[in-house]
User: Fold this.
Amino acid sequence: MSPRPKNPPPDRRGEILEAAFRVFAEKGYRAATMAEIARAAGVTPAALYYYFPSKADLFRAAVTERRSQLQPALAALASPDARELPPREFLGALLRAMADFLADERTRAVIRILLAEGPRDPSLVAIFQEEVYGNIGAVLGYLEQHMAQGNVRPMDPRVFLLFFQGPLLAMVIFRDLLRLGPYRDLPNPALVEPLAETILAGLVPEKR
Amino acid sequence: MSPRPKNPPPDRRGEILEAAFRVFAEKGYRAATMAEIARAAGVTPAALYYYFPSKADLFRAAVTERRSQLQPALAALASPDARELPPREFLGALLRAMADFLADERTRAVIRILLAEGPRDPSLVAIFQEEVYGNIGAVLGYLEQHMAQGNVRPMDPRVFLLFFQGPLLAMVIFRDLLRLGPYRDLPNPALVEPLAETILAGLVPEKR
Amino acid sequence: MSPRPKNPPPDRRGEILEAAFRVFAEKGYRAATMAEIARAAGVTPAALYYYFPSKADLFRAAVTERRSQLQPALAALASPDARELPPREFLGALLRAMADFLADERTRAVIRILLAEGPRDPSLVAIFQEEVYGNIGAVLGYLEQHMAQGNVRPMDPRVFLLFFQGPLLAMVIFRDLLRLGPYRDLPNPALVEPLAETILAGLVPEKR
Amino acid sequence: MSPRPKNPPPDRRGEILEAAFRVFAEKGYRAATMAEIARAAGVTPAALYYYFPSKADLFRAAVTERRSQLQPALAALASPDARELPPREFLGALLRAMADFLADERTRAVIRILLAEGPRDPSLVAIFQEEVYGNIGAVLGYLEQHMAQGNVRPMDPRVFLLFFQGPLLAMVIFRDLLRLGPYRDLPNPALVEPLAETILAGLVPEKR
DNA sequence: CATGAATGAGAATTCATTCAT
DNA sequence: GATGAATGAATTCTCATTCAT
Assistant:
């Protein structure tokens, strides 16, 4: 009957968002129920509707909230200080940072949601696209500059991104999402170091 | 030709499986309803239960059926004749074949289902794992042989697979599943040819 | 568990429509619940959705069904044989028939629904308008003919309708719908006979 | 003028009552939500409960309040000065006044509520019954006197009321509530003048 | 084989109401 | 006086599933 816990809860909205994201990531949008999210947030289902008009809105808000939480990590990938480094070091550092970023539990949850719901919900993809491309754009700028100087083999930037994002993404998908047996105990560096070497061998021609 | 008197009895089971797979791939397991699958198959929902005991079973059967349909294409990836080629040619051919395989509409549907449902259903992943690894194993055998001969840089085979599956998978995910704007008009060869060159540059040392 | 009563129910749809109309008339659209309608029809709420896609559709169907049930009585009001009578007899007969029609339980239920929901739902009104006007049109035709012959004082037909429908409608509203104390025991003839006389006195000039 | 220091304290209660009546009249009791009423009144739903214990009480209070607003208009219908007139003039004046009263927007809203909720809520009807009958009683008194004098044909007063209220009520229902096409542009006098003539022709015998 | 009819168990959502502040 | 936050009890609607025929 009493609609209120005694001590004022500090940030119900945030707690709900957090709980909702967890449940959505674990179960997927359809299988996640408002009742379960409410339980996870320690409130009643009706409380969810006090803060968000619908399940779809809660989902969107939860995802957007998570995006902004990831924002600093994403921005760090394009940190200005790394851009002083020569291509080999820069790319190595970038690969390591990106591997850590992708393998982070919070990022993985986003990837899971994006892969599960994105194909049916382009607007969901759009939430991240802008953000990601804004930060990756800085990286591409660095590369284009060095391509122009002949330090890096000229290449379609999209292809370049696939080169080093692809293996990392595949690792996260196989190892962390699908939990394929053979990949289960593959540590990040086991992929990243050979990847850096191999890709760089192909990308940065005359240094070899 | 056949002495069968009536018009060929329709392969109801097969049609249902086909329709079910389409609907599951498009909507995801939870959002796909038995009614919609039935409609897609041209039967009533009750008929589904004549052939399959439950939605979960139908899903599993539909996925398994699709796996066996992809089987020939997968097997071709490990075709014995390509294994006569030297590493550069072999790897190039493999990359091209795999890119075509991954980008094929039927494969994409499987990937979509695996990415969406796999994280919550390890047994679903298992259905494909065996199959895929059986065929990829042949490829790995080839490589191990050449690594031993010094023709290919020695490397963890899992990492090797990530190297060349990763970018292809990423391309399919970005371009075909998430339909990211920038990737929408990236043709397979635009990725595959630079990928072959670059990776090979790193993988096959003395040729450079 | 058993989804089916043993002996096949003869006309579930009709029963549901009937029950729905009763409940809608008694409670109004909003206050009537699918659960109560189901109970009244002896089925489960889900069964309602087997026959009708939504509550709104069920409402509409129930009202339309009732309209067609009333159709014969309405048509009788414009029966051709009464049209052979001279104006005084014709109007008297019409008034009596209409009073009986309006005071009939089934008609009253329609009036109740129309008065309660009509102001917010013009399409509901439209369901009856056509029907009613079709039949009343015949009456008006008779009158116009006699107006032309000078047997009936010329008059706007809408006003004419208000003249003799109005008191009858008011009687039904006061007596049967609002159950105003003073009207509770006013029998139809107590209104109809003076009404016939009085109105006719004004309407059929030279006969007096 | 007034020595009150601050800006006049708003009549919250009155505003709420006003807003509540509007919303109830437009949507009906069930469909009207406390939230919407609060919004219309410019307060929060909780504030409603400061002034009224429940939705039902608010409804009742809003209706009663409106009744007292209509009171003067109702009383005017039985104004003493008109009672000096001879029957023909008196009845004509009464008809005109009543038509104006019924067609007034505020009265219409009351009628709408009474027709929609009255059948399920006798106590709602009672709120007005007393009021109305008190004032109409005066009119009936006038008539009874003239009936006794032979100036008006003797008649059950309830029937008399139906005679001239009925067409007016029907006009308001058809034209203003149900918005029936044919009645939409029927002005009050188009009904009232013929009605006066016709009814009087029947009611006031020797003048004809 | 196949279906029409039906259902039980949820699911999202609404809403009058409460109460500490 | 007034409100923000919250809730319990409906309510509409969905859907996998059943089974007599």
User: Anything to note?
Assistant: Residues 35 and 45 of chain D are 5 Å apart (CA to CA). Confidence is low (pLDDT under 50) at residues 1-6 of chain D. The two ends of chain D are 60 Å apart (CA to CA).
